[in-house]
């Protein structure tokens, strides 16, 4: 029988959130207004980096070089075009030296080097028509971004006898930030009206459709305020704002859909809005709580990684999930109590529904129920076929190549991307492709010369520049130019070979390839902990929901399987470049190292969101009837339309994010959209019924000790703990019929 204490606790919660509904809504409005103020300007405080491992050898070397040799780590490039006169002509040379002098006088600049000061061939284009001025802007990400915004307009365009364009890492990051801000605004302008239309189609009622949208907006604005606060203590990636929009709308709408749908079911058989809200919170409310905890746990796993790019998504994700669940469990019930039957007002589908009803009355959810029965009759065929299909779609992932994010994330027309691409095409060598080796401990010239000879003898090395020593003595550095591209596999192997070379002084290597090698190692070292954390928390929460040890294992395995299509598509499209022209991005032949981790955590959490919705209704019916197959049909019939609608709406939001001009954001949006749709339309409708049919009543098995634990501590949507005995199972209650289905 239901646990009286738990029922009382939930009843107490219902009274707490509905005792003064107008006050609750007023406080929610006040919270939202404060969040708007507190979160204003958050985008300006977000950072464009975060892919490197901060405690790695490459990070240490980069900081030391910036301190002792600022010019060795340039992050700003002025590409100087001689207008056909040649970079060695007197007028062009004078203009180039003047630009370098002006730049060196800027207080934000710590080191300037140019072709006209050094004569270095790598700073001059192969056709001698262009040359580079490279400089280092010092300070944190915020200071560097502000300096770029101030410096670029003063140097861009016609400068006497030459034309100047702006490039370099600092310019790329600044342009990324502004592009993402513009793209997010456009995505919201696309997603909000389309989502509202879809919600009206789902609910019919314009009033009911506005409620999920309100929950999503509260979650987004609240998370922006949280991120603004977090930026006062640590770096936060600017990409995290994309997740805020996606999850705020997606999960806010999911949770509100589930609660509003259940409220309308309960309200159809009673004239008591308060009682309907209480029943809704005891059932759908518990499911929403479990779902939120599962998604938050999946996103929290990114906190184990040292890169603040990944940690930022954990900050944003945990905040938005908890705020979405809080709004759905506190604000939404208050609104439903006040609305009562008016939640069905402004029914825009009334005329259409009359025509359908007159033509052919149909049992609500009949299509999903029929599909579930078909799948269970041919369970082995559907289980094997769906699994094989998903694995086949995931095969391209076996060929994944990891790389670093660079200017090619930006659209081809972006100035910093165009400049960096021109440097790759028109200048000797690979810009930024060198491996810089820091030598510490006041190494002598003879020792440095011997070490340089060892580096030059390595098979993948073209030449070694340097050593360059500080004027007052102390450390020195050398630059190793590889034969291969900046971050391909051979260059990464060369990093290991360089680090293995013996030296009579302390050495540390950095550069794009070294940063990538260290980032991969940091992720590989911590990935088992992250996966283990997700698996353990998911297994525990699903066990508490179902009382079975088999269902949690099924949930984890099927969820992981649902992600294969996403990972295969990511490699086939964004690494290999298929559809790059249609989607408008530049393929680099690699995937940024941290993105698969991010996409796994996010997609796994969202898949469990739908899994919890389905399993909770199956468990509720199985507790009531003891009919295993009937419970599966019931669960699919009751949640099939809901999950499909939620998945389509979330996919729309993701696709809106996927319209971004930044390749990584595009990949994130489109990849997660695919994962969500595959999970809703393949895993939840085909694989779950087939696998549960194959495992039969053993699906609900648990050892006696765990069964007793679940009877005491477990929570299910039906309100009870374990599986009720046959004799205690009651017939179906009137309010469990489908008065108003989600189609």
Distance between the termini: 33 Å
Order of neighbouring strands in the sheet with most strands: 2-3-1-5-4
Residue stretches low in confidence (pLDDT < 50, at least 5 long) are 1-10, 356-361, 718-743
Total beta strand runs: 11
Q: What's the multimeric state?
A: single chain
Strand content: 5-15%
* Number of alpha- plus pi-helical segments: 25
Mean of pLDDT: 84
Helix fraction bin: 55-70%
Question: Could you explain the architecture of this structure?
Answer:
The protein is an alpha+beta fold and 743 residues long. The protein has helices spanning 4-18, 21-39, 57-68, 90-104, 115-118, 141-155, 169-203, 206-230, 240-268, 273-300, 308-339, 350-359, 366-377, 379-393, 415-426, 445-456, 489-500, 512-546, 550-562, 564-575, 580-583, 595-625, 628-658, 663-695, 704-713; strands spanning 76-81, 109-114, 130-137, 157-159, 162-167, 402-403, 435-440, 461-469, 476-482, 506-510, 591-592. The strands form three sheets. Strands 2-3-1-5-4 form a five-stranded antiparallel beta sheet, sandwiched between helices. Strands 8-9-7-10 form a four-stranded antiparallel beta sheet, with helices on both faces.
